[in-house]
Amino acid sequence: MAKIDPTLAGKLKKYGAKDFPACYNCGNCTAVCSLTAKDANYPRIFLRYGSLGMKDEILSAREPWLCYACGECSAACPRDAGPGDFMAAARKFAIAHHEPTGLTRLLFTNSPFAVVFTVLLAVVMGTFMMMVSDRVDPDNVLKRWIFDHLSFSVIHDMGMVIFTFMGLSALLGMILMGRRLFAGMPKLENPRKAIVSAIHNVRAELLTMRRYRKCQDDEEPYFKDRKWPFQPWFVHWSIMWGFIGLLFATILDFLLKDPATTTWWPSRILGTVAGIAMMWGATLAIIYRIKGVARQYRNSTLADWALLGALFAAGLTGFWMEVAVMAHLENDLNAAIFIIHTIVSMELVLLFAFSKFAHAVYRPLALFNYFLRQK
For the whole model, what pTM was predicted? Predict the structure, then answer.
């Protein structure tokens, strides 16, 4: 018998779900969704789960991660129950539930805490960078006090501990989600073939967004005749692969050359291409949200704006620094831009497992489960 959580509806509303208890289970949302299938019947059933307090059914489901939030289901709802908003809230709720520290829950549901936390984190990182900079007078009182009490090696080790903690939190979240997703998995006739096929389908989806490209709200004409670089699926693709490319470029910087100041160095080329992709996607997403061009862009939360703002700032300051390095421009303004770029980029990496960006880890896992169960 399913466990009932009578407080679930109130919790989900804190994550962005709206008047979903108004749903009377007509099924219009499921009927118009181009991504539903006989073994992935959503979003109707999940609004019922939310209203009835069936938390485990939501947390163990792959369907919220198969939704790309096109908004067509919400347009078809005669009760204005917001099924699309509910699915987005269910994803955030799942991220927060699987993340073990509770930080994600606070960042998603408590806006004042989210603002204060991110600002304080930026101040701490900025202060530290200023203190280790060669531009700061070694006789500076604060700098001398810091290094009298903490050696650079200790600070470095503290940073490694923090990064390890963040990584372990993300890994544990994946494990907890995976245990729920794969519980009761039916026996596969040919496990090896099914796994290889599922991996191929996940890779194809991430590289081409083929399922996402099916999402089209016919009542929203804005994207009907626009070319593919301006379509929502490509905006999503650009942000995701742009960020991943920049992350790998940073890793290559440390492995091959630190820092990469040569224009044609592999990490520099990768970083430039990935940065252009990320800036394209982030800029369009911000413009679409400001203009409210379609339903999926009209109900942005603080988490949405914070992520897009950070991505845009990281990209803009990154290209600024690229020009400054190539032109050999060394001045206080560029030093300040470098500090801002580093702070924003570090916050994106440090808070990866605790932000909306975590779906970049959870969605592929859910897609793998979905394709595996199709065999």
Answer: 0.84
